[in-house]
Amino acid sequence: MLRCESLTRTFLSGGHELPVLKSITLDVPDGSFVAILGPSGSGKSTLLGLLAGLDRPTTGRVWLDGVELGSLSEDERARLRGEKVGFVFQSFQLIPTLTARENIQVPLELRELEAQKRADELLGRVGLSGRGHHYPAQLSGGEQQRVALARAFSHRPRVLFADEPTGNLDAATGARVIELMSELNREVGTTLILVTHDQSLAARAGRIVRLHDGALLSDTAAA
Amino acid sequence: MRFPLLLAWRESRSPRRLMLLMASVTAGVAALVAIGSFTRNLQASVRDQARALLGADLAMGSGAPFSPRAESQVAQIAESGRSGKTQPEVARVISFSAMAYVPRTAGARPVQAMAIDGGFPYYGTIETSPPGLWGRLGEGGGVLVDPSLLTVFDARVGDTLSLGESKLEIRGVVTNYPGDVGIRSALGPRVYFSSKDVAGTGLLRFGSRARYDTYLKLPAGVDAQRLADRNRIRLSSERVSIRTVTEDQRSLNNSLGRLGRFLSLIGLVALLLGGLGVASAVRALMKKKMETIAVLRCLGATAGQIFSAYLLQAVALGLAGSVLGAVIGVGLQWFLPRVMRGLLPVDVAFAPAPAAIGTGLALGAWVAGLFSLLPLLAIRDVPALAVLRRAFETPARGRRDWLRLAAVLVLVLSIVGLSVLQAPSPGAGIAFAASIGIALGMLWGVAVLLMKAVRRLFPTRWPYVWRQGLANLYRPANQTAMVILALGFGTFLLDTVYLVHHNLLRDLRVGGTQGRPNLALFDIQPDQREGMRALMQREGLTADTPVPIVPMRIASLKGRTAGALLAEGTATAEGPPRPGQPNRWTVRREYRSTYRDTLGSSERVVAGQTWAPGSWKSPHPADEPVPISVEAGLAKEMGLGVGDLVTWDVQGITIPSRVASLREVEWARFEPNFFVVFPEGPLASAPQTFLTLTRVSDPTHRARLQRAVVEAFPNVTAIDLAQVQEVIEKVIARVSLAIRFMALFSLAAGVIVLLGAVAASRDQRIREGVLLKTLGATRAQVARVILAEYLSLGTLASLSALGLSLLGGWALLHFQFEAPFAVPAVPLAAFSVGVVVLTAGIGLMSARDVFARSPLEALRAE
């Protein structure tokens, strides 16, 4: 499903090169649940960005569902994401001027597909049936993250990237969101890539990839 | 395309933030719709009232009595215009200026006399008070007058009016005369009387200036235009012009159209400034939307889809703003007739003009979309990765950003295209677009320089609040240059119009200027010179040496007869001359030339050489060409150069002449200026009249003198130059008012841009103000920081505008009007201060946002 080879990413900062990722090679099979674990600054989000096609590596290659991302233009990547990728972010990243329902509809509307029925179905699935007309500012953090989850799954993506999905939530709410995410993941059969610094969260995954200082420390099955 | 439409619609649901973007184009569209609708309504009124404006189907006119051949042609035209047994009706009108007075009261004034024979006007209703008097004008022995005449002479109906040597009863007033331009009465009230009484006035004698018109009312079904076209050339060779209702209407509508388009150009400036406001608002919006755009990219939106959505939004908001502008523009039509009062020949009905409204809406939406293009291109630079991290490397663009270049090209071509569409001619449109570009560029340059100067000469010793306010002018993401540009341009326009207006009037001023004549006495016959000198002496006045005026016509030009020159050309309405041919009016008109051996103070030789003084006082061979000096502008119209030959017909005597020199004349000066000057000698015994100038400081004495002159010499016209100046001032003031009225829209657009800039920096200002409050600043101190910033902004805008207007005003006065330049310091300073106060006031209004938030609330929101 997802594969990368000798992936490196270097940034220029103040005229100096800053290596953030050092030669990462990974192979993620279809339907698996992988946690990318590491302390702050270890390169987790950078790796996520490269795997999701949000960024271009300095060297190395990425394949997503058999398509080599390096050969695609920005718009082609965007279209690929729209078709096959879902995202859940730490800061929810809902569009503030759209209602909860409209936020969920966006990935389907981008592909000119029927959206409203699916949005209502997912709103019910995440327990927000009566809140579809509310704007993000009118929802709590947990509710916003549930809307983000619904949006991420609306188009039945092949892979879901979650970047610290519970980082801005309290423990109880975070646990509920993770539970929901796992349920939806099982239903849709998506490959799930979870980036976190939380050991207990990572333990729920079937495989843990540890990063430290931009390098792959270990890649093991969860205990 | 569905998603961009959906996104554009959804993003526009919170209108508060988008109001300023919407309002940016409102002022410009209001201006364009107002002037466009007004012009169209005016042209429609001219079309409806065209027949009444001419008063007949055909009009033939000349500056001299019709020659026998011309009369014969008129008779033939009348015969050709017959339909069955029905003959055309013929009326004659002689129009001339004369002095008049009312014996019962004091004073004497010039009037415009119209002697009418026949049923003129055949179309349009003339209303009189008492009613029904117009039809009885032919009885003779009495006059009908403009109501202003009664005011001017303190007279009443029933009084006697002395006109030349006649005493005529004032029988009533004309309360409505079709096509009368109100301001014309300032030149002299109209007096209408029967042509039976003309001879008795003794006013139409040698040297008198009069217009002779013959009007025809044709039977139904007779084609006036065909008659005119068939006879135009023959009449022209007799120096008689012919015109029809259609030609008059077309000519008037063309002139009105050109005026409308000129004023629309100023409205266009307001719209383009509004476009800057749109660009500024969209740029600020894109900054706010960066995260949303990154999220959309993550979710699969292409740059094109997002670009389309926000472009649609900008165009839709521009359209909404344009609708508001159109409503205001339609409402403004109520004001425009009042602004133009006295200058319009027709009554204008108030009606929305769909074409003008449609054009305004389309232009508003187009400008909104156009000026959004460049800031929206920033969407390409928002990577999806921004959802994960804030600071990242921006994608490197290739050396040439073709899309940006294309957007700039579309912008430039559109501005030029819009200017060409609105301008009276394509050349004027291109020149206008270039001028706007140069002015904006210079204003931008001045703004940047001033800001650099502020930075360089930063007043480190000033109190903190002032230093903070000044520093805010060049903080990151500041809108200083944009505000100076938009606000400054509106101010620049108003300053420049005022400067030109002030200096043109100053140049014309005669009243207060010591030594310059302020009373001109025309048409003094040779045998009246001595009597006039004695009268002046009795009044204790000195008069300038009388200036001889010899009426003459062109017999031939560079070897070709006037008749042949006039006979050439098209058979249809007068058009521009063919290359190498003189302009027809220069060949057809009567010239009033003088003779002297010295140059006047208002002229200078620009080509050739004048003759030696006295060199032509002794007789020369009759066929030797007399050297003449011709005014440079006239020479250009005639295609004349130094050395060319012109033969003159001076009351039947032919005088050959050669152009010895060309002169530039300051026509704006109230001095005896002439197109053609002969040397002393050859015209000494030609039939001539005289003009003399004198100065009478006291207005009462001046009025008494006018009365004394006209009583002693009824044919002499005494013009009070102060009154002429008053009329010219009124006309210039009206035109200036119209231009300033339009320029106000530019200032309004500038204010909206300022409001947009204030809104764009709102969050930053709240953050800053809240931090200051947290650190211990009082509300007064925070307010002073904001005041310092906006006072500085307003001052920079005013200074930039003032500097540019002084330069622009000087250039216009020097090159276009050839008038001297002086700075009206007090009014300009007062206006500049006004702009500064307005800017500071708007800025202070934004302080409410800062005071409304508690520090904790704002810090939490971070």
Give the structure's gist in a few sentences:
Chain A has 223 residues and is of the alpha/beta class. Chain A contains seven helices and ten strands. In chain A, helix 3 packs across helix 4, helix 3 runs parallel beside helix 5 and helix 5 runs parallel beside helix 6.
Radius of gyration of chain A: 17 Å
In whole angstroms, the N-to-C terminal distance of chain B is 36 Å
Q: Unreliable stretches of chain A, pLDDT < 50, 5 or more residues? A: none
Helix amount of chain A, in percent?
25-40%
Q: Report helical residue fraction of chain B.
A: 40-55%
Q: What distance separates the N and C termini of chain A?
A: 23 Å
Oligomer status: heterodimer
Secondary-structure-derived class of chain A: alpha/beta
Radius of gyration of chain B from CA coordinates: 34 Å
List keywords for this structure.
heterodimer, A: 223 residues, alpha/beta, six-stranded mixed sheet, four-stranded antiparallel sheet, 7 helices, 34% helix, B: 862 residues, six-stranded mixed β-barrel, 52% helix
